[in-house]
Amino acid sequence: MIRNLLIPVLFIINFAAATAQSGVDSLLLVLDEKIRNRDIYVQQKEQKIAELKVARRQVKKASEKLYTINNALYQEYNNYSSDSAIYYLNANIEIALALKDAYKVNETHILSALLFVRLGMYQEAQELLESVQQSVLDQEQQLNFYLAYRELYVGLGLYSQNSRGRHGYWEKTKIYDNNVKRITKEDSEAYMRSTEKALRLGNKYAAALEVNDQRLKLVAPYTPTYALVTFHRSLIYRKMGDIEKEQKYLTLSAISDVQLAIRDNASIVILADILVKHGDVDRAYRYIRFALDNIKDYNTRIRSSDVLNIQTIIDKAYQAKNEKKNRELRIVLLVVCILSILLAISVVYVYKQMKKSVIFSRKLKEINQELESLNSRLHDMNNELKMRNLEVAEANHIKEEYIAYFLDECSKYIDKLDNYRKMVNKKLQDRQYDNLNKITRDNSLKEKESKELFVNFDTMFVNLFPNFLAHFNALLLDEERIVLKKEEVLNPEIRIYALIRLGISDSTKIANFLGYSVNTIYNYRTKMKNKAKAAREDFEWQVKQIGTFK
Length: 550
Hints:
The protein is mostly helical. Helices cover about 80% and strands about 0% of the residues.
């Protein structure tokens, strides 16, 4: 309990300090710290969800109480896990129908449509909105109804390939935006957000900033609305060409997103794009990897395409940076060679001088000792350079193998999604709703994909480290050595340590990848350490040193 109270306090202190300094660099340091501690914020989110699920299990049948708990779970999952959010909205649809409550049916349909629009599921969102009975909507539902339609046509306008159709979408967007303003007060968040956007698109930046100032006064840091308002402010500065302030407010928005465990976010993706253009490649790479983890956990195709486009740019910059380091290493090696030649020339010259006079014998001895020391240091430098070259070669090889594997898997996944889309579309056209419902409830596809993922991972890893199992067994007691079954490439214990060899040591990440609980991963690791020949605290370090790629 005390820990849960301390975290928000520490956030406010860090946030105030960073804002007082008003420097982008200090804000980036705060964001870096938040990302390092992201597991803490995820645990907080999971704890809230777990408490709601406990309360839900105590409700035995469809009721107002169960509907309220499901709605609370949807709110927690809304920006955290789209699949779970959809699950609890669907559960509430069943409850509303069972209760014959038209108000709840409309409410759940509108909330589902808002979520589907954000996920790029425009057809599903439109079908839900068309099913809403507008005549019985209250003011709050009417507002959400107009907002859902507005965001639907915004999305269709942005992604439509038909320029003529796109114009129609923009016109409908304006109609629903006017409806939002018509039913809201001028000092409301919804009204001011629409006004600010219109001013920004009309290039009236000063007026847009004034409206944004009013919105900021109505929210506090460490809230979802604050993250959204600061993101909108960064869009104004982008239109103005003020990169520094755009970066500042993107960072503030990203800090709030990380602190709130919000996975559906755009701030950190755009921030990574800015950073790579300004040469901060390492930080941009960390941010885009963090964003990729988020979209994978949240499961949204719209964010995926945006992140993958920026990731390609960052990967190229990262590769260019490594190539620059390699060139620098070659230059250093060339200088060392030149120095070695000069050193050899010096030795010859000194030797000739020795023959001319015995007087210089003592001095020659001192020079020889110094030369021996230099040779020793040069030898050490050469060995160090060889080790660095091997490390760089290994890192480059693993990276190339991984990128090739990643691109291939992305291509396969896109094809599978498209085939699944075609199948769903065909069944919708044929009105095979029961069959489609049965297919979507079956999780065998996920199990199949997971099994295929493990097979691909095992094959790729063995291709990189063909002698890993033999070296791994050499670290274990003789009676504890692992023997794989005939059909196995890797078993779960070896797969865990394969991830550790690739540099993934965090049990939470390993658990998420393998589909186990964190406790299961911890038990596997503890059990294997107990079988080690050497000290158990050195076992995982020794695993990371195993072998080289082929």
